[in-house]
Amino acid sequence: MAEPVLEVSGLRKVFGSQVAVDDVSFTVAAGGSLGVVGESGSGKTTTARIIVGLDHADAGTVRIDGRDRDHAGRKARGADAGRGPSVARSARSGRRAERLARARQVQMVFQDPFLSLDPRLPIGTALTEVLRLHHPDGDHPARVTELLDQVGLGTREATALPRGLSGGQRQRVAIAKALAVEPSVLVLDEAVAALDVSVQAQILNLLADLRAELGIAYVFITHDLGVVRCVTDEVVVMRRGAIVERGATDMVLADPSHSYTRLLLESVPGPGWDPQLITAARRALAEAEAELTPR
Ligand SMILES: Nc1ncnc2c1ncn2[C@@H]1O[C@H](COP(=O)(O)OP(=O)(O)OP(=O)(O)O)[C@@H](O)[C@H]1O
Fold it and tell me: Are the CB atoms for 195 and 201 separated by under 8 Å?
């Protein structure tokens, strides 16, 4: 078994009276792929945001490449409190270095690629900016060509603005931007949910190829067990902030032990399903879920 590249332990996050994440722990092996599934509101995105540092946990730890994700930041902030301006300046540059170091550990791809793309920047320029920030000494034009090639894009796309690309192409660019940083872990939050089914399949194939080629580890946040089946080795199922089931993806999907996972599985559309049936199945799932919930 490969060393874990990501170790999430005892994460907890509360918003007001809502426990969004409740004692969540899992590991992802180097080059591994973990699916985090659950219906809307089960705490998936909050878990992802804590892993990438967009949110802080109330309790628990995230270790990437054996390093505690929050430790350096907390230590710097605590030690610098109430000191003079030069210490504050050096603390700021320390925090910047820390942010860059974190970015090189983990990157995130969102459902809506517009969030990570500047509408005014041609794609090639956007990629060059990332390279200048994270890898200032490299051969940037060659690397931009290589990155575009890795995600199945070419010179036409390099000069295009984000609005000149299709949804699938924009998501390829978002993936290229994340890869440009060369992170150990890529967190993908509903990264194919907004795409047509055929484009979804292309992006999932691309992600599978990139993992094999680069050895990057994935955390796939999704409500869609079909996606999990395609691109993950292991899966955790979240419900109401907590993990209710975990295991090898094929085992969990073939023989789920928790009633909630069985409900999720029943809502996965198969061949020949039409959108109305899918909507009806989702409604039935919500009703069944409400029945499972203790009053
Ligand atoms: N910033 C916030 N302020 C208040 N409550 C929040 C905030 N973020 C999340 N929550 C609540 O925490 C719970 C978990 O939300 P989260 O977005 O993590 O779930 P999710 O499984 O990712 O759902 P979805 O698939 O709809 O994004 C929900 O009840 C949500 O309303």
Answer: no
